[in-house]
């Protein structure tokens, strides 16, 4: 997972994912497994924002694409960088 998400996956952010954490379950545990297919790497700021900003939706697709929808309906997606 860390090989896939070397940088924050929030669209527009290029900060590094901290080594000690900031991996987030796309489907909350225990409903979703702790696995690469259910984890997303965020920088500290955007990880906090995901949980504290009401109305934002983050969806992780099976191919690793992250789709973020804002409260106003704007949709942005990021794909994992190539290996």
Please tell me about this protein's structure.
The protein is of the alpha+beta class and 83 residues long. It has one domain. The chain is built from 1 helix and 5 strands. The protein has one helix at 44-52; strands at residues 23-25, 39-41, 57-60, 66-69, 75-78. A 3-stranded antiparallel sheet has the order 3-4-5, with no helix packed on it. Strand 4 (66-69) and strand 5 (75-78) form a beta hairpin. The N and C termini lie close together (11 Å).
Topology readout:
Elements: E1 23-25, E2 39-41, H1 44-52, E3 57-60, E4 66-69, E5 75-78
Antiparallel strand pairs: 1-2, 3-4, 4-5
State the main characteristics.
83 residues, alpha+beta, three-stranded antiparallel beta sheet, two-stranded antiparallel sheet, 5 strands, globular
Percent strand equals: 15-25%
Number of domains: 1
N-to-C CA distance = 11 Å
Spatial arrangement of strands, main beta sheet: 3-4-5
The Cα radius of gyration reads 12 Å
Alpha-beta classification: alpha+beta
Number of beta strands: 5
Report the biggest beta sheet as strand number plus sense, adding barrel if it closes: 3 strands, antiparallel
Shape: globular
Care to give the gist of this entry?
This protein has 83 residues and is of the alpha+beta class. The chain is 11% helix and 22% strand.
């Amino acid at each position: 997972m860390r090989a896939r998400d070397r940088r924050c996956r929030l669209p527009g952010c290029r900060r590094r994912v901290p080594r000690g954490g900031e991996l987030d379950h796309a489907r909350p545990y225990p409903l979703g497994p702790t696995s690469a297919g259910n984890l997303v790497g965020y920088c500290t700021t955007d990880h906090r924002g995901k949980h504290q900003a009401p109305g934002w939706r983050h969806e992780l697709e099976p191919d690793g694409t992250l789709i973020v929808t804002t409260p106003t309906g704007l949709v942005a997606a990021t794909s994992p960088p190539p290996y």
